């Protein structure tokens, strides 16, 4: 029997709905297991400068690991949106209190705390997404912000996702940037292997 592949839009809608219906306690349990995997990842342990998303909309919760990194003295870089240029800026975060609601309702550094950092300073990039396949293809929200940002990132790109966000196949567009690893509550997927 042939496998039927869904369009990006249909996959996005289905996975967003699944993620939205995830009970809070289960989301926290799964997020904790995923953060544990991240904390044991050699690329993360060795990284001095970590680019990481600030979780929103039932994504894998990154707040605890951001707090841990700030305490441990790692350099934490978070996304800030430049709406005019339609791009993500890596901004150094020194304190969680520097964040405020930005574009799309996502927490990002307030204007007075924007500390633009070149992508070449990133040792590992930790990103969100809505769906992924084992080859590292990703479906995001459809605005292209992360793809435009990631094309300039030379370090490993690691995605955090729940098991149900893994799909059999995503047909990438020419501008889509692949991830190197996907961490879920049950596995570490080394993409393309």
The gist of it:
The chain is an alpha/beta fold. The protein is built from five helices and eleven strands, in the order αααβαβββββββαβββ. The longest helix is centred in the N-terminal third of the chain and has 16 residues, at 24-39.
Describe the protein's architecture and organization.
- The chain has 193 residues and is of the alpha/beta class.
- It has one domain (8-190): NagB/RpiA/CoA transferase-like (Rossmann fold), CATH 3.40.50.
- The chain contains 5 helices and 11 strands.
- The protein has helices at 8-20, 24-39, 42-46, 63-72, 145-150; strands at residues 49-52, 75-82, 87-93, 99-101, 107-109, 124-127, 131-132, 138-139, 157-160, 181-183, 188-190.
- The longest helix is centred in the N-terminal third of the chain and has 16 residues, at 24-39.
- 32% of the residues are buried.
- The mean pLDDT is 93.
Give the CATH level 1 class: Alpha Beta
CA radius of gyration: 16 Å
CATH superfamily: NagB/RpiA/CoA transferase-like
Could you report the average pLDDT, rounded to the nearest whole number?
93
In the predicted model, the low-confidence regions spanning at least 5 consecutive residues are none
Given helix and strand content, the structural type is: alpha/beta
Annotated CATH architecture: 3-Layer(aba) Sandwich
Number of helices, where a helix is a run of at least 4 consecutive DSSP H or I residues: 5
Q: Per the principal axes of the C-alpha atoms, what is the gross shape?
A: globular
Q: What order do the SSEs take from the amino end to the carboxyl end, as H and E?
A: HHHEHEEEEEEEHEEE
How many DSSP-defined strands? 11
How much β-strand is present in the residues?
A: 15-25%
Biggest sheet layout: 7 strands, mixed
Percent range of helical residues: 25-40%
Which fold name fills CATH's third level, the topology?
Answer: Rossmann fold
| Separation, N- and C-terminal Cα atoms | 25 Å
Number of domains: 1
Spatial arrangement of strands, main beta sheet: 3-2-1-6-9-10-11
């Amino acid at each position: 029997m042939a496998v039927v592949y869904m369009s990006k839009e249909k996959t996005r809608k289905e996975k967003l709905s699944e993620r939205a219906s995830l009970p809070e306690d289960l989301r926290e349990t799964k997020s904790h297991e995923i953060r544990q995997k991240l904390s044991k990842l050699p690329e993360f342990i060795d990284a001095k400068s970590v680019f990481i998303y600030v979780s929103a909309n039932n994504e894998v919760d990154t707040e605890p690991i951001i707090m841990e990194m700030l305490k441990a003295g790692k350099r934490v870089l978070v996304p800030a949106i430049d709406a005019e240029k339609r791009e993500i800026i890596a901004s150094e975060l020194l304190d969680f209190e520097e964040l405020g609601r930005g574009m799309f309702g996502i927490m990002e550094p307030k204007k007075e705390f924007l500390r633009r950092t070149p992508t070449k300073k990133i040792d590992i990039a930790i990103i969100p997404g809505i769906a992924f396949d084992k080859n590292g293809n990703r479906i995001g929200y459809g605005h292209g912000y992360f793809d435009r940002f990631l094309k300039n990132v030379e370090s490993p790109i690691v995605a955090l996702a729940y098991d149900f966000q893994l799909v059999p196949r995503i047909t990438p567009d020419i501008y889509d940037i692949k991830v190197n690893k996907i961490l879920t509550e049950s596995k570490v997927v080394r993409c393309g292997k």
